[in-house]
Structure formats: structure tokens, C-alpha cells
Amino acid sequence: MILEMKVPSPGESITEVEIAQWLVKDGDYVEKDQAIAEIDSDKATLELPAEVSGTITLKAEEGDAVAVGEIVCIIDTEGKPSVENNKTKIENKQDVQELVESVKPENKTYASGSPSPAAKKIISEKNIDVSKLKGSGRDGRITKSDVEKAKPSMGSLPDNGKRGQTTKKMSLLRRKVAERLVSAKNETAMLTTFNEVDMSEIFNIRKKYKELFISKHEVGLGFMSFFTKAVVRALKMYPDVNSMIDGDQQITYDYCDISVAVSGPKGLMVPVVRNAESLSFSGIETEIKRLAIAARDGKITVDDMTGGTFTISNGGVFGSMLSTPIINPPQSGILGMHNIIERPVAIKGKVEIRPMMYLALSYDHRIIDGRESVGFLVAIKEALEDPINILMDGNIKKSLEL
User: Fold this and answer.
1) How far apart are the first and last CA of the chain?
2) Cα 293 to Cα 299: distance, rounded to the nearest angstrom
3) What is the C-alpha separation between 284 and 301, in angstroms, rounded?
4) 367 and 278 Cβ atoms separated by less than 8 Å
């Protein structure tokens, strides 16, 4: 029986996806539920599992844009795995090409050192000096492999100079991110305000309770739970920051869905911690861990990425000292966290060394004024510098559920 596999709908409003990568080859035997491809939508990368076991025939190329419901491959359920064929199968298509060229009748008449047609094409494209090539093929023939390893002719360029380059198509997800970032710059009145925060109290709490917290909740007590709690408090104090523009309307939310920027194999992803205002410290840490693992393993879903009323981006994990984060539209604000460095600061007339972090708030000036933006960032600073009284109601153990 022949089964036609069609592109499933990754989510509401998505009508087209892109074949990011085939995980199998044409003619391979695949098992039911085996991941056969990765597909990109404008929101996430998902795996496409085989619906049945059998021999697969691919009907789309990597990089192809295909509509939801379109056939991308067929699977012959009568096909059987061949152990012998798998042992002798040539994996490298380049080797296949060279093998074919080496047995062509016309190639037998090539003089020593002459290139194959495939090699000639690359020589022309890369501007390679043929006189400097040494053929490794039969009778000294210059093969495709010889040419690909050669350096292009660059006049007086030193022999050890490297001038290579690669070209690849941007994924649908990356193109959508680029489109949204440019849109944010062009269509919002974006402005950034800065402040700094003394992280001493948070350091002390984590040092004292981190082991107990891990043993109780099976997740670490990180900085993100403190920052999320501080952001939720500030959003309630300054609701304009927790709003969006829709045409000539301003929509303000009475809940806090916090988007958290995380790095995944396909680039930056921004999954959402839903109703963060109702989550405890352990609840926030657990949810962020779940989303980060899903992003890392390429298992993040469209639902995980949809929505969000405010974003937190932690460039500090990569060593960033200071940045101006770009708004994640249609949101109106984003908080940038940065690295923590011990710096001398004035405390009650004396110089002390404290762990300091710069904070940056980028916001849409069309609906958020300077008073709200500065006040919002100051409220975050206050909460982070006095977390016991402001974020924990004076009871650390109760707040951490210890």
C-alpha cells in the first residue's frame, strides 16, 4: 500500500511551512513514528514523524515552501529494510558523482591532469588556477574533490590566506524573526532607558537556600524567578507597559504572560510563561526550565510561542554588559538583563564592592511616557534590591515553599 504523507497544520493561522531538513534519504526504510523531517513555520521548528513503516520517496526538497495539506513524501508499506544494502550503500553523494565520472567512456581519453566536467564547473565558479592543482584521480585526473579543496586565485594573496565563504538559505523561522525585528524598528517609537541594580540580597538568598530549594523542588533557584516576580509587580503598578496597540485602540491586560527569550538550535526563541502573576518562585523556575529544554531539543510548540504581554531577555548569560533590546511586537516593552560584575559603589558615604547589573527597558513611546518607563524600571530595581520585603512579604521560607 502507498501512503501519501501531507503537511499537517502546525497551528492556527499557519498556511505554509518550509522543509528545513530531511532526516532520511530517498529510498530509505523508515519506521512508524520515526522523525523523517524538520519543518519550519514562522513560529517554530517541528519534527515530522512517519505515519507508517515502509520505503520512503521524497516529493519535496530542503528549502521548499509547501502548503499545509500538500504531499511531501510517499511511503510504500510493502517495502522492507535491506541489511545488505545498508552495509554497501554509499553515503556521500560526492563519491557517487566521482565514481560515475570515472567510468564514463569520454573520461578515459582525458590526458593526465585534465579535470572532469563537475570539476570544471567548480573551477570556473571559484576562479581556481588549474596549473596549481594536483589530480588524485586515475591517470592524474583532477576530481571534484581536488577542486573543492583548492584555494581560489586571488592575485598576490599569501598562500596561507583563507578566503572561503558559504551561502545558505535562511530558515523560515529566522526570516520571520528578521521581519518582526525590522517591523519593530520601523513601526514603533522605540526608546530605551537604563538603570543598575545591586544584586547582593539575591546573591545572599540563593547562597543560603539554593541547596534546600533544589532538594525540595528539583529545579534550581535562578535569577529569572526574581526578575519575573519583579516585572509582574511593576506591570501591575504601570499597566500601560502591559498593553498593546491595535489600530487606534490600546489593549491593556489584567494578566501577565511573560515571554522569555531563550537560545535554541534554530536561533532565538521566545516561549511564554503564562499567568506569571499566579506562579510561585518554584512554579516560575519549573516552567522556564521546561520551555528551555523544549527549545534546546527542538520540541517547542507553536502554543508555547504564541502570545505574551511583556518580554524578558537575558543577554548576561552570554557576557553582555549593556544592550538596547528590541521590542517583541505587538508587545510594548522588553526588559534586558546583563552580566553581573563586581564594581565599587558608594554605600552610605563609603565605597564597597557589590555585584552590579545594568538593566535596560526598551518601550514603545507611543503609549508609554517617560514617567511610566522610568518608574517601571525603578520599581524593578527596588524589588530586586529588597526582595525579602517586596517580593517575599518578609518570609523567605514561605515564599520559596521550603
Assistant:
1) 59
2) 8
3) 19
4) no
Is the omega angle on the peptide bond into residue 265 within 30 degrees of 0, that is, cis?
no
C-alpha cell at 268: 532565538
The answer, yes or no, to whether residue 66 has pLDDT greater than 50, is yes
Cα 297 to chain centroid distance, Å, stands at 11
How many other C-beta atoms can be found within 10 angstroms of the C-beta atom of residue 34? 16
pLDDT in tens, 283-311: 999 999 999 888 888 778 778 888 899 99
How far is the C-alpha of 381 from the C-alpha of 335, rounded, in Å? 12
User: Which of 258, 368, 372 shows the shortest CA–CA distance to 312?
Assistant: 258
Which residues, in sequence order, are CB contacts of 196 under 8 Å at separation 6+? Answer: 356, 357, 358, 359, 381
Report residue 75 CA to chain centroid gap. Answer: 31
Q: How far apart are CA 15 and CA 10, in angstroms?
A: 9
- Residue range 2-85, CATH number: 2.40.50.100
Residue whose C-alpha is closest to residue 128's, from 149, 114, 111: 149
CATH code assigned to 94-149: 4.10.320.10
> What's the confidence (pLDDT) of residue 167?
82
Confidence of residue 88 (pLDDT cuts 50, 70, 90): very low
Domain residues of the chain, as ranges? 2-85, 94-149, 173-399
Beta-strand runs (E) in 181-297: 190-198, 243-246, 249-252, 258-264, 267-269, 272-273
Question: Do 2-85 and 94-149 share a fold?
Answer: no
Q: Of all residues in the chain, what percent are helix, strand and coil, respectively (each to 5)?
A: 35, 25, 35
Domain boundaries 173-399, CATH class:
alpha beta
Half-sphere exposure of 326 (CA within 13 A, CB side): 15
Whole-structure pTM value: 0.67
Per-residue pLDDT for 27 more than 80?
yes
Backbone angles phi, psi at 337, to 5 degrees: -95, 150
* Enzyme catalytic residues: 365, 369
